[in-house]
Amino acid sequence: MSTSRPELKAPPEIYYDDTVAQKYTTNTRNQQIQAKMTERALELLNLPPGKSAMLLDIGCGSGLSGEILDEAGHVWVGVDISPSMLEVALEREVEGDLFLQDIGQGFGFRPGSFDGAISISVLQWLCNAETSSPTSSPPFRLNRFFTTLHASLSRSARAVLQFYPNSDDQGGLVVDYPNSRKAKKFFLCLFTGGSSSSEGEDEDNIERVQQGRGERGKKRKPPKEATKDWILRKKELYRQRGKEGVPRDSKFTGRKRKTVF
After folding, report:
1. Are residues 33 and 106 in the same domain?
2. What global pTM score does this model have?
3. CB burial class (10 A; 0-12, 13-18, 19+) of residue 133?
4. Residue 250 within any structural domain of the chain
């Protein structure tokens, strides 16, 4: 097995320090890959068209996936174990609620809180034991993760988890570009009938990082006091992701139009 895989080098809260968090977030290729995988995860969630959903972004990092959820009109909550990643997310003023959370110890959300969940390149981190403690073993951490994730999802919700398995013969997966060594991506798609488990009510192991700025079911709007800055920032993000047809910047960008009676 290649030692180039980051989960084999150090625990995520150590590996993603201040330097790596900034470098990862500002890398154009990372932004494009993250955007494509998040869009694919949203597609696999198969949410009702035209409706805003409350989604959980597991391993949200600096909020790259959250921006895609924003663009799709959804409200989201993000959890991550790396303080440095969450600090970058705060600096970038992402729209979601953020929690500092070790997902291997389980979630503390109320049962049925989310209409769906996504995770990009995170699940493989739970397959490594960092200490000899029973609560650090992969079986324990995976059990806590899936049990409490199931409890936090609403009835008939889906969870789509993109990850990098140790081998290609692990079942239950959607595989994109199966014949490509570099482009191949694995998505674990889970379905739930809901849960009444009380495990989701234990909030002692979650640290709240940021208060959300929107109501469930309502699409986010740009802040009125910084409309032009908001538009310029979004246009730059679109350009970095390689989107075509982004309007050029001008002195008229963000200018209010006169009302015609």
Report:
1. yes
2. 0.70
3. exposed
4. yes
